[in-house]
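job 3f2a | input accepted
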Amino acid sequence: MTSSHHPAQLVVETREVEHVEDLLAYASPDEPLAWLRRGDGIVGIGAVGGYEKGRLLPPGVDMSQVPSPADTWRHIAETADVDDPVGLPGTGLVAFGTLTFDPDSAMSSRLIIPQLVVGRHRGRSWVTRIRPTYAELPEPAAAPRPYGPYWSATLGPGSLDPAGYQAAVRQAVDAIAAGDLEKVVIARDLVGTIPVGADLRRLVRALADDYPDTWTFAVDGLIGASPETLVTVSRGVVTARVLAGTIPRGTDAHDDDGASSTLAHSAKDLQEHRYAVHSVLDTLGPHVRHLRADPEPFTLKLPNLWHLATDVAGDLADSASSLDLVAALHPTAAVAGTPRDAALELIRRLEPFDRGRYAGPVGWVDGDGNGEWAIALRCAQIGAEPVRQYAEYRDTIPVVAHAGAGIVAQSNPETELLETRVKFRPIVDALA
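job 3f2a | predicted structure (432 res):
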């Protein structure tokens, strides 16, 4: 992979190992790096470098040439010497990423290149070691660590309480009625604290166990379980799953069937879903051949709710990496609204907080541009700015969670508030 025009900055070696039963046990208890689904995935230990707000690590690249995470990653990959005989998704050079929802956020978008990656895919396990050529770093051990004690936390209202949220929804409906936009996603926040020294892998484990079909992630203090794939690129194939339109699960089998049917025939939810699908198709179109999506959504069952869902697929038509497609897609109508610029302006006006990485892209990318990226939903940001905007903390670590609902012309404030409560449930239950 190393370009003849650049000396190697990173040396990468992947080797297959005996079966790894519990990937998460290898992660750092206080700074876990993880991307998991049904037990497969990758975890990272340590950090070689990466990207943060336009800064490039490792050094040696002209910063005028790296204006974005995608371009930064291309430069890093071009100067890496990779030995990967395994050749599975997640082997070779990889970086974990978490990007902000709004480019004006006080938080940073980050790519983190770990020193060590432990992975598993369809019964095969591997270890990747990544070391810089320009410095000596202590090499972390590829060994599982015992889990720390169980702990709990409770979340309470943040800067937008239930009454304030309903007022914001009414203002959003008024803006839609005035013709300013067609859809906007308005979120609210919950805040709390966790004990200093808490083993954050406990939170990751709870989410992975309760929501095995989601992408469970932990990157730079952002921990969650997202059901929504923003985009996946694997050897020239591009896929995405669009979720928009939500209803709580029923209390018994009969009620549950009724809830699913109600959602499938809801004019409001179908309209909201169409906006989201069209935004993805329009954005991927220039980059993807044979782009296809089912004409009607299906109902996706999760432990706590039903979603309207549409799968999108096609073949990559250019040299775009997964990070390039992430940059083009984000923010989708599913988490911002439509038209995009008008929705973002209204979100900034109605939400009295910085979303940080909530509803931003989270995932991983490899040296060839393949990767898996989800939208950071059902998540909490732990112990980082701008979390501390909410209060001063001394012997505890602050945590903030967000949940939102798509607002269209027919939206009812009480119904949208209920939807946010349902969406908060995974992270609130896992923290408790």
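job 3f2a | Residues 413-431 form the longest helix (19 residues).
job 3f2a | closed
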